[in-house]
Amino acid sequence: MEKEIVDALNSQDLSPADTKALLTEALRAELARILAEQSSMGSLTDEDADKRIEELEAENNSVNRHAKLTHLGGL
């Protein structure tokens, strides 16, 4: 799904409303994935939680960097 969204955004044939709808759907799918992951994880030790936070922060930095490079930061 992510590839299709990126391809659609890169085609520049999307209206702002279509772009917002695609990004909203991507967000919903990601939030559902996160909730499912949290439900299956059970309780984390402090060490595991710290490691997961570091992983998420690195992923967030990567996504932000990509958004700036592709000029999607303003959407």
Write the layout of secondary structure elements.
Elements: H1 2-11, H2 16-41, H3 46-69
Helix pairs in contact: 1-2
Task: Throw out a few tags for this protein.
mainly alpha; 80% helix; single chain; 3 helices; 75 residues
Describe the structure.
This protein is mainly alpha-helical and about 80 residues long. It has two domains: about 1-40; about 45-75. About 80% of the residues lie in helices and about 0% in strands. Helix 1 packs antiparallel against helix 2. The two termini are about 20 Å apart.
Summarize the structure.
The protein has 75 residues and is an all-alpha fold.
- Uncertain stretches: none
The number of domains: 2
Helical run tally: 3
Structural class: mainly alpha
User: Could you state the oligomeric state of the chains shown?
Assistant: single chain
Strand content: under 5%
Q: Count all strands and give the number.
A: 0
- Rg over alpha carbons: 15 Å
The shape, in one word, is: elongated
| Strand and helix order | HHH
Mean pLDDT: 81
The termini sit apart by 19 Å
Helix coverage percent? over 70%
Q: Largest beta sheet, briefly?
A: none
